[in-house]
């Protein structure tokens, strides 16, 4: 949680060195490899980029966070980020991003993201 909110809410470049392994592995093909590249990405973020965390699931050395990011692309996106953790560092990351569709446009009429969802499944 700290990694995502530090990067995409507070735009805190120092959090990358504090939370990510030096040889951090990134599986998103649109983001360069390594911690230094990630620091550059955070430095270049527009002030309009903001992340809202939701549901968090953890098992073993893996943590998944379901959230919404605004300002990254033209449309808000719902994202699932999966991190592999060693000790206190994030060492590997996978993600899936999808443009958010308003609940009223979906067949089921349900929201893709509810900021309060994390507290519902404790």
Structure, described:
This protein has 122 residues and is of the alpha+beta class. It has a single domain (2-119), classed as Nuclear Transport Factor 2, Chain: A (Roll), CATH 3.10.450.50. Helices cover 18% and strands 39% of the residues. It has three helices and five strands; from the N terminus they run ααβαββββ. The protein has a five-stranded mixed β-sheet with strand order 1-5-4-3-2. A hairpin with a 2-residue loop joins strand 2 (50-59) and strand 3. It is globular, with a radius of gyration of 15 Å. The mean pLDDT is 89.
Structural topology:
Elements: H1 2-8, H2 14-19, E1 20-26, H3 35-43, E2 50-59, E3 62-70, E4 77-86, E5 89-99
Parallel strand pairs: 1-5
Antiparallel strand pairs: 2-3, 3-4, 4-5
């Amino acid at each position: 949680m700290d990694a995502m909110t530090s990067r995409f809410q507070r735009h805190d470049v120092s959090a990358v060195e504090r939370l990510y392994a030096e040889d951090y592995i990134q599986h998103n093909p649109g983001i360069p490899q390594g911690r230094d590249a990630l620091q550059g990405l955070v430095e270049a973020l527009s002030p309009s980029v903001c992340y809202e965390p939701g549901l968090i699931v953890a098992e073993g050395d893996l943590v998944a966070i379901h959230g919404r990011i605004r300002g990254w692309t033209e449309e808000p996106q719902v994202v699932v980020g999966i991190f592999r953790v060693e000790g206190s560092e994030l060492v590997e990351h996978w993600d899936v991003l999808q443009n958010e569709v308003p609940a009223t446009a979906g067949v089921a009429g349900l929201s893709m993201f509810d900021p309060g969802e994390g507290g519902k499944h404790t």
